[in-house]
Specification:
The protein is built from no helices and 26 strands. It is 0% helix and 39% strand.
Length: 391
C-alpha cells in the first residue's frame, strides 16, 4: 500500500516543542503506534473524498489506555486532537485533512511519541477509464471499457448511473452507485425497459483514491426474445407474420403479452410477414403502414445490431439470410418512431427462426449499441488539497 510519511520533526505541537513525547509528567509505559495507514472514502459525484479511515497496529500491552488521533489541514499548521479511541481504527467523516498521526496514552495518562505522519495526497489517484461502451439488454445494460487505469495499486472500478432525458439529451442529477467490479466490464440489471439512463465508470486504488469519471454514455434497456419460429405465408397463413409491439391497452406502456406477437400473414396490423418466392427463398416483407426495413449485414448475435440509423429504410422486401441482421423503423401511432431489430438464425423452405429486440422508449433509436456521449454535468477536476504541501 502506498504511504507518504513525514519526519517527526514536522510535529510541532504547541504544548511540547521538540520533545519526543507529546505530554505527560513521566516516560510513558507504551511506545509510539506503528503501521499507520489510511483509506479515503469515495468521491462519487462530489469533488473530494467523502471520508478517511485510519488503521494502525494493535498494541496488546495492559498499560495502554487509549489512542489519540491528531490531524492538521496543511503542513504549516499545528496538529490538533481529533479523537480518543480504544480501537486501532478511526473514521473521520467529511473531506479529510492533509496529515494525520496517532499517539498512545498509558494508564497513568502519559502520552507516547507520535507515529509517522500519513499524508493525504490526491495526486496519487489513478487515471480515468478513457472510454465507455454500452449494450442494451432485456432489463439491463452491459458496460465495458478499456483497462487503461489498471496499475499495481488498482483496487476496483465503480459504476454509476443516473436518469436520462432523451429529448434534451441531458443526464439527471440523481447519480447513484450501480456496483463495483475488478474487471473492465459490468452488467447493470433490474432496470426498467424503455427508460434511458446515463452511465459512467471510475477507477479506485488501494488507498481509496477515486479517479475522474470515464466519458458518460446513455443507454436504454429494451425487450428481446430468442428462437422465434415464423412460417412462410405460402406454407401456412397462421403464424407467418410478426409484430414487435401492439399496445392492446392503449396506455403507451409495453407489457410482456403485447410484445413479439405472431400474426396471420393476412393481418395488415403485422409489422412484417415472411413470404416465399418461386425459388423457395424466404423474405421479410413490411406490412403495416409506416413500417420500413434495412439489412445491416452479417451479425453473430442480435446484440451486435447497434444504434438504429436515421435513414436507409425501405418498404421493399429483403431476403432472409441466416446470420444476417435487420433493423425495422415503424410508425408508433403517437407521433414517434419505434425501432426493432431481427437476426435470422435459420432459413428453411417453409419457415425461418429469428431473434428479435425492440426499443419501447418512444423515438429512441438505442437498440443495442450506444449513441454519442450524453451531455451531463460531468464532475469537474477535483481540487488537489495536497497542493498545500508544495508551499
Amino acid at each position: 500500500m502506498r504511504r507518504l510519511t513525514g519526519s517527526l520533526g514536522l510535529i510541532l505541537l504547541a504544548a511540547c516543542g521538540n520533545n519526543s513525547t507529546v505530554s505527560g509528567p513521566s516516560a510513558p509505559l507504551v511506545g509510539a503506534p506503528t503501521g499507520l495507514s489510511y483509506y479515503v472514502g469515495p468521491v462519487g459525484s462530489g469533488t473530494a473524498p467523502s471520508s478517511i479511515l485510519l488503521r494502525w497496529d494493535f498494541d496488546t500491552s495492559s498499560a495502554l489506555a487509549v489512542w489519540n488521533v491528531y490531524s492538521r489541514r496543511d503542513t504549516t499548521a499545528g496538529f490538533f486532537l481529533r479523537a480518543e479511541t480504544t480501537s486501532p481504527t478511526f473514521h473521520d467523516a467529511g473531506i479529510p485533512d492533509v496529515q494525520y498521526l496517532v499517539t498512545a496514552v498509558d494508564v497513568n495518562g502519559n502520552e507516547s511519541s507520535a507515529s509517522p505522519v500519513v499524508t493525504v495526497d490526491e495526486r496519487l489517484q489513478l487515471v480515468a477509464p478513457e472510454s465507455l461502451y454500452t449494450t442494451a439488454l432485456n432489463g439491463g445494460v452491459a458496460l465495458d471499457w478499456p483497462d487503461n487505469a489498471y496499475a499495481p495499486d488498482f483496487l476496483n472500478y465503480r459504476v454509476y448511473s443516473a436518469s436520462y432525458d432523451l429529448g434534451s439529451q441531458l443526464c439527471g442529477t440523481d447519480w447513484g452507485l450501480e456496483g463495483t467490479t475488478i474487471s473492465p466490464d459490468f452488467i447493470a440489471t433490474l432496470l426498467p425497459n424503455g427508460q434511458p439512463r446515463c452511465f459512467a465508470v471510475s477507477a479506485v486504488d488501494t488507498l481509496g483514491y477515486e479517479s475522474l469519471w470515464s466519458p458518460i454514455q446513455a443507454e436504454t434497456p429494451r425487450f428481446d426474445a430468442r428462437d422465434v419460429v415464423v412460417n412462410a405465408v405460402q406454407f401456412s397463413d397462421t403464424g407467418s407474420a410478426f409484430r414487435f409491439w401492439q399496445d392492446l391497452n392503449s396506455d403507451g406502456l409495453a407489457t410482456a403479452n403485447e410484445l413479439g406477437l405472431l400474426y396471420d400473414g393476412s393481418n395488415l396490423a403485422a409489422d412484417f410477414s415472411v413470404t416465399r418466392d418461386g425459388s423457395n427463398n424466404l423474405f421479410l416483407t413490411p406490412v403495416r403502414s409506416g413500417t420500413e426495413v434495412q439489412s445491416v449485414g452479417p451479425v453473430t448475435d442480435v446484440n451486435d445490431i447497434h444504434y438504429a440509423p436515421a435513414s436507409g429504410y425501405d418498404t421493399t422486401s429483403v431476403q432472409a439470410t441466416p446470420g444476417t441482421g435487420y433493423i425495422f423503423q415503424m410508425n408508433g401511432g403517437d407521433g414517434f418512431l419505434r425501432y426493432g431489430a431481427v437476426r435470422v438464425s435459420h432459413v428453411g423452405t417453409d419457415f425461418l427462426i429469428l431473434d428479435w429486440a425492440y426499443q419501447s422508449d418512444p423515438g429512441s433509436p438505442m437498440l443495442v449499441g450506444q449513441p454519442a456521449a450524453a451531455s451531463a454535468p460531468t464532475p469537474q477536476p477535483r481540487p488537489l488539497r495536497s497542493k498545500q504541501l508544495l508551499r
